[in-house]
Design goal:
There is one protein chain. By secondary structure, this protein is an alpha+beta fold. The chain has four domains: about 170 residues, Immunoglobulin-like (Sandwich), CATH 2.60.40; about 80 residues, no CATH class; about 220 residues, Neutral Protease, domain 2 (Orthogonal Bundle); about 80 residues, Roll (Pdz3 Domain). Helix content is about 30%, strand content about 25%. The protein has 17 helices and 30 strands. The strands form eight sheets. It has a seven-stranded mixed β-sheet with strand order 4-7-2-1-11-14-13. Strands 16-17-18-20-19 form a five-stranded mixed β-sheet, covered by helices on one side. A four-stranded antiparallel β-sheet has the order 5-6-3-10, with no helix packed on it. β8 and β9 form a beta hairpin. The longest helix is centred in the N-terminal third of the chain and has 19 residues. The protein is globular. The protein starts with a helix and ends with a helix.
Length: about 625
């Protein structure tokens, strides 16, 4: 037994030494003008063979993206420069014969020309690198320390990332050299390199950086930095502290859109003109608020399925309605609480800053979220939990029928959060709120623990002091319609009634677009007149009755008819003409526009004020 114990100790010490031996990357940009980088991965190895892999997806974006498709020119050598044999063992793995080497150099090029917050973009002026599509690592080596050194072109002076800068050696600092305790941190830390404009501020002595790539004298850097600081200070007050030692807002002014959260950084894209109009700027502040809220909700307080990550397979969860939906609720609400949007911006009467869909005639972030949910036919077929579970195959792979069969876990989750917040306030007579519930869940399930759907719901019941099983069954687990009555009544709100004399409007029940002068159908709603008549997506509408309808005339033309009338619609379907008979519908949907009741009581107004300000 003693020899076996001794052997076990030796093996344990060996494994410990191996896991503490760093994997070092050197990234070069000599081919930046053709969108290529070269990567040298210096990897510790043991045994006759090892495998390295590249992730197939990146956390926060729930789609298998096959990042290895952009890798080419792979070569492997030993630490003394001897070429080593290797094979592609899977679509994203390489098996290397080590020939007794203790370290290997796995070198490769990566093509970087997809402008998004989850992929890579490299050009002559700057680079955006995300960890998952850039860095291979050792199979079984996620716990190794990892280091990144960037060898920038002479004209590039700056690199910014959430990674920790390497300390000076013998008093000499190595520029653009970063450290990570493990591979998860590498994946979780995007990098911007080039000559961005960097704005710095501190909260609680912790440095924060707003990194604007492409200000170009157009984007208002000082204003956006000051307002970002207001959002940080608001959330610091709400959560009771900041959970990191540094935070970096990477803001790429590329004309694209979107954001992706990380543990102590965020990657965002927007238009360089975004600070020039109130609506676009309010929208950007909502994006900042959403992604920054993730520093707590999902990056630390997370569904149990989202960590530790399996980077080579899908990681499904039923709780994205919390991870993304609750975040969307707080995004626009907290922008308002931080003093960065008006009451009209949030409830209605102003530009929206939090909705994710088009809501004609509906203004205010919350009203638009509700509109998005209530005008999605798919809400009757897919629950919030099912939408979360299906994210990998539905939300990230939409088609023209998606709105008919599914619901957004962003919008549905946000509206559920609004209803739950009101329910907790009502059950506790305003003494507790959803803020309290989120703090409780964070204290119990953050970091390595994670929560199950049942644990999250139980935390809500504990704060509310009342059973909520039926609420969650109806709002999250089933496709029953949401009930807004109690929530609106608590705050003295209502949905704006339609004018009694509002004229009836005839409708096809289809969305269209102007495609170079052609009037094309882009979506057909389930059970609509267009659906019943057999109109299809991509049909070109040429005429209604005997009269030509041009691309910009459909609404006006339908105004000549009344709901219930039968009309003949001439279409071109794959260049073949067809006539279809359509019985026009009545386009008078509920507006879902929230407004304060004119007869709201003083108590209801107090409830409204407490909610909108975040104060009891």
């Amino acid at each position: 037994m003693k020899p076996l114990v001794g052997l076990a100790l030796i093996m344990s010490a060996t494994l410990s030494a191996q896991s503490s031996d760093p994997i070092r990357y050197t990234v070069r940009f000599t081919e930046a003008k053709t969108h290529y980088i070269s990567v040298d991965a210096d990897i510790p190895v043991s045994g006759p063979s090892v495998e390295v892999f590249m992730p197939v997806w990146t956390p926060g974006s729930y789609l298998v993206r096959e990042f290895a498709k952009n890798v080419d020119t792979v070569a492997v050598t030993s630490d003394n420069g001897k070429p080593l044999g290797f094979t592609t063992s899977r679509k994203n793995r390489w098996k290397i014969e080590t020939a007794g080497a203790k370290r290997i150099h796995f070198t490769y090029r990566v093509y970087c020309r997809e402008m998004s917050v989850r992929t890579n973009w490299v050009e002559s002026g700057f680079a955006l690198l995300n960890g998952a599509p850039t860095f291979v690592t050792l199979v079984g080596g996620l716990k190794h320390p990892h280091e990144v050194t960037l060898e920038l072109p002479p004209t590039w002076k700056t690199s910014m990332t959430g990674l920790t800068e390497a300390p000076p050696v013998s008093g000499i600092a190595k520029p653009h050299h970063y450290l990570a305790p493990d591979y998860d941190t590498i994946v979780d830390s995007p990098i911007v390199a080039g000559n961005p404009t960097v704005h710095r501020f501190e909260v609680d002595g912790i440095p924060h950086f707003l990194v604007n790539q492409g200000e170009d004298g157009v984007w208002d850097g000082p204003r956006s930095s000051a307002d970002t600081e207001k959002i940080v200070r608001h959330y610091r007050q709400m959560w009771g502290g900041l959970p990191y030692k540094k935070y970096v807002f990477l803001n790429l002014l590329t004309g694209s859109g979107g954001g992706l959260e990380h543990k102590n950084s965020v990657c965002m894209m927007t238009s360089r003109w975004g600070t020039r109009t109130p609506a676009s700027y309010t929208g950007w502040l909502g994006l900042v608020s959403h992604e920054y809220f993730h520093a707590w909700n999902v990056k630390r307080l997370r569904p149990v399925e989202l960590g530790p990550f399996d980077y080579e397979n899908e990681n499904p969860t039923k709780s994205l309605w919390v991870a993304e939906g609750f975040t969307d609720y707080y995004a626009s609400l907290s922008t308002h609480r931080a003093g960065l949007s008006t009451r009209a911006d949030y409830l209605g009467g102003g530009p929206a800053g939090g909705g994710r869909g088009a809501a004609p005639g509906v203004s205010g972030a919350l009203s638009r979220l509700i509109y998005d949910v209530q005008n999605a036919p798919g809400r009757k077929l897919q629950s919030a939990e099912q939408a979360s579970l299906d994210a990998w195959i539905r939300y990230y792979r939409p088609n023209e029928n998606s709105g008919n069969t599914g619901i957004s876990y962003y919008s549905k989750g946000a509206v559920v959060a609004f209803l739950l917040d009101a329910k907790i306030r009502q059950a506790t007579n305003g003494q507790k709120t959803l803020d309290d519930m989120m703090r409780l869940a964070y204290s119990r399930y953050s970091e390595d623990k994670g929560y199950t759907p049942e644990q999250f719901k139980a935390a809500a019941e504990e704060v509310a002091g009342t059973p909520l099983r039926d609420f969650f069954r109806r709002s999250v687990e089933s496709t029953e319609e949401l009930d807004y009555t109690e929530a609106l009544a608590w705050y003295g709100l209502r949905f704006r009634p339609r004018p009694g004399n509002a004229p009836a409007r005839a409708s096809l029940g289809a969305d269209t677009k102007n495609d170079a002068g052609r009037l094309l159908i882009t979506r057909v709603a389930t059970a609509s007149p267009a659906h019943t008549a057999g109109l299809n997506v991509d049909d070109e509408i040429l005429a209604i009755g005997d009269f030509r309808v041009r691309a910009d005339q459909l609404a006006a033309h339908l105004g000549y008819y009344k709901p219930g009338e039968k009309v003949s619609v001439l279409i071109a379907r794959r260049d073949k003409l067809e006539r279809l008979e359509v019985t026009l519908g009545n386009d008078q949907p509920t507006e879902w526009q929230i407004e304060v009741r004119p007869d709201a009581t003083a108590e209801q107004k107090q409830h409204l004020e407490a909610w909108l300000t975040g104060r009891s």
